[in-house]
């Protein structure tokens, strides 16, 4: 397999590129080396399958479910060999996939794992056993769906996947994205490595509109890294919304591109034999074909390895008639809102809100925010705060009379279409709190300086009204931290890289920085920062004290400043700890950091390399507020890239 990664680069689909791929695929394909090589364990089982069974195992069937925008993907399995047929629900529309930002904003790994376990129960109850896990993946899906930092995204979504595996569901990291060049693949690959450490057996998913050249973006040419460097034995799946175009030559080139990206399973709508991994692959591995049969053996072994390590081979779900996936009601939705809502602004101590019969809190929401506003107003009443729902506000024209008379107003907003309303209400003179109910880290806030409070509550979820009311009225304190930089619609060049590293490189301050989040009454201070080396690890210890007058949860963050001339971003997140503290309480915390987070991947030696030099270790409440720093000299360190054999 390593031969594929060693090819040159050139025009995708070009004749010479195709010839190079043919030569690479013709090389002998033996088992991967290494004692920790997990795919080799499945190789003997795969060898016992017939070639027809292997071809069945690597081809997924996709059919439309009895609901618009949903398809059902089926891995047919091989019953004779004890490999069950498995299903997953696939959202056809990229915009329909749920954003993971609310969960990431909790920075709570235990909650993420429990969220995966709860989701696994619902998936298996529907007769399915495979699920896509967003937040990381081979293809970029947009800032509302991708994690910004590889450590935070990798650990949080890795915990979700670990929870799914604990419930005997096979997770696939990735989702709907656009194939082609991917300039941020290094951070994305690091996030995948971090996640796979915690969720051994998880696969990867590239969900695309149609199979094209470089179908998995950054994975193209990375098979040497995945299989020989990481010793990754799981499956890589490619699913398309539309059939592959006809034509012998184009289909041959597309097949080569898919194999170059390490694809093990391919599926698309239509008859199974017309799929890329249907007749095209069958002819390619036939006697005299251009794909060696040993390559098919490895593909089948990767599929079997993921099925086995996720527990779905031993614990298959019931496989009944095809039916519509039931809407998922997250039992942890309230907990996610409680920990993930982020307080961005609290001027004039507008929060906590206190409404009385003489001066009730006015709650306002237009359009899609109308129903959530009604729910929050009722919930505030149940919490003991007098609140009422404002009259409908017209898109154009004067504000309702009750708005002009209100002293404190909560406006729920689902998007920029509410900006005119927010600005008009704020100009009216009352104290305004805006609650954002969307996952839009690039949203401009032209009214920001006119309002007193801003809360990022993420996409509206049923059951969150009571928790949101508790946060607004002070029965709970805010503890969420931004998992992405809020740019305000203005970002450095290459907007898709608009994370904290890009802002650092450009020396530009974002609207709200990565890791940012306020508390209403708790006040946290840091001290006694120490950093020591323990072999290939860095041990960071520090203290945190709550100097406020109420209990609260803090998320101290540790960043690394790289030596000058390294060519890297000025700093990177290397660890964090969540801690709940009573007023006046102090805690001594520590974070262990391995060499991956200190250095970078060396594709030539297949290891993580930390150059010798002086490194700064910084501590603070977010990426733009690092008040403590110590320096430490690190020697040259090299750490093998293999994933742990017993899980992360």
TrEMBL record:
Which Pfam families did the record assign?
A: Fn3-like (PF14310), Glyco_hydro_3_C (PF01915)
UniProt lists the family membership as follows: Belongs to the glycosyl hydrolase 3 family.
Q: Name one GO biological process term.
A: carbohydrate metabolic process
Identification of the protein by name: Beta-glucosidase
What SUPFAM superfamilies does its record include?
(Trans)glycosidases, Beta-D-glucan exohydrolase, C-terminal domain
Q: Which GO terms describe its molecular function?
A: hydrolase activity, hydrolyzing O-glycosyl compounds
Q: What InterPro entries does the record point to?
A: Cellulose_deg_GH3, Fn3-like, GH, Glyco_hydro_3_C, Glyco_hydro_3_C_sf, Glyco_hydro_3_N_sf, Ig-like_fold
Q: Which UniProt keywords apply?
A: Hydrolase
**Where is the Fibronectin type III-like domain positioned along the sequence?**
554-623
């Amino acid at each position: 397999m390593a031969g594929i990664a060693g090819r040159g680069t050139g025009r995708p689909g070009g004749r010479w590129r195709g010839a190079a791929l043919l030569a690479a695929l013709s090389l002998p394909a033996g088992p991967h080396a290494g004692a920790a090589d997990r795919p080799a364990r499945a190789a003997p089982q795969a060898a016992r399958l017939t070639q027809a069974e292997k071809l069945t195992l690597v081809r997924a069937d996709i059919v439309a479910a009895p609901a618009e925008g949903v398809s059902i993907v089926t891995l047919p399995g091989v019953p004779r060999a004890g490999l069950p047929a498995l299903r997953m629900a696939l959202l056809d529309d990229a915009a329909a996939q749920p954003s993971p930002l609310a969960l990431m904003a909790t920075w709570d790994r235990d909650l993420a794992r429990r969220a995966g376990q709860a989701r696994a129960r619902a998936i298996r109850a529907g007769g399915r056993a495979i699920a896509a896990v967003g937040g990381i993946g081979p293809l970029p899906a947009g800032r509302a769906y991708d994690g910004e930092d590889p450590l935070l995204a990798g650990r949080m979504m890795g915990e979700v996947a670990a929870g799914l595996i604990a419930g005997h569901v096979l997770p696939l990291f990735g989702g709907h994205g656009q194939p082609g060049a991917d300039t941020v693949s290094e951070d994305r690959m690091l996030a995948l490595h971090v996640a796979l450490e915690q969720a051994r057996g998880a696969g990867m998913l590239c969900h695309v509109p149609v199979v094209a050249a470089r179908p998995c973006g950054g994975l193209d040419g990375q098979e040497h890294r995945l299989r020989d460097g990481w010793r990754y034995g799981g499956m890589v799946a490619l699913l398309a919304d539309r059939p592959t175009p006809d034509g012998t030559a184009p289909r041959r080139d597309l097949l080569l591109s898919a194999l170059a990206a390490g694809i093990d399973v391919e599926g698309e709508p239509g008859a199974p034999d017309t799929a890329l991994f249907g007749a095209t692959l069958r002819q390619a591995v036939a006697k005299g074909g251009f794909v060696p049969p040993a390559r098919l053996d490895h593909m089948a072994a990767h599929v079997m390895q993921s099925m086995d390590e996720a527990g779905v081979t031993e614990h298959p779900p019931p496989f009944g008639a095809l039916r519509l996936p039931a809407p998922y009601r997250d039992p942890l939705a309230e907990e996610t809102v409680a920990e993930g809502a982020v307080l961005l602004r609290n001027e004039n101590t507008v929060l906590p809100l206190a409404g009385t019969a003489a001066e009730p809190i006015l709650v306002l929401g237009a359009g899609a925010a109308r129903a959530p506003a009604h729910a929050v107003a009722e919930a505030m009443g149940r919490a003991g705060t007098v609140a009422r729902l404002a009259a409908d506000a017209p898109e154009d024209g004067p504000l309702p009379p009750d708005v002009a008379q209100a002293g404190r107003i909560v406006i729920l907003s689902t998007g920029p279409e509410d900006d005119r309303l927010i600005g008009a209400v704020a100009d009216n003179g009352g104290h305004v709190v805006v609650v954002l109910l969307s996952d839009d880290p690039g949203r401009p806030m032209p009214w920001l300086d006119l309002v007193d409070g801003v809360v990022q509550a993420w996409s509206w979820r049923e059951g969150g009204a009571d928790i949101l009311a508790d946060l607004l009225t002070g029965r709970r304190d805010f503890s969420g931290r931004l998992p992405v930089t809020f740019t305000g619609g203005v970002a450095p060049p290459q907007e898709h890289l608009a994370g904290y590293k890009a802002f650092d490189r450009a020396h530009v301050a974002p609207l709200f920085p990565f890791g940012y989040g306020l508390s209403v009454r708790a006040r946290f201070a840091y001290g006694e920062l120490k950093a020591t080396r323990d072999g290939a690890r860095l041990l960071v210890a520090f203290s945190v004290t709550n100097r406020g007058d109420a209990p609260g949860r803090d998320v101290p963050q540790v960043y690394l400043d790289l030596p000058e001339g390294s060519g890297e971003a000025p700093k990177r997140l290397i660890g964090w700890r969540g801690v709940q503290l009573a007023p006046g309480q102090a805690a001594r915390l520590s974070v262990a950091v391995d060499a991956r987070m200190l250095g970078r991947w060396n594709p030539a030696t297949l290891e993580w390399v930390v150059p010798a030099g002086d490194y700064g270790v910084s501590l603070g409440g977010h990426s733009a507020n690092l008040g403590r720093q110590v320096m430490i000299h690190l020697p040259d360190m090299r750490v093998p890239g293999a994933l742990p054999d017993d899980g992360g």
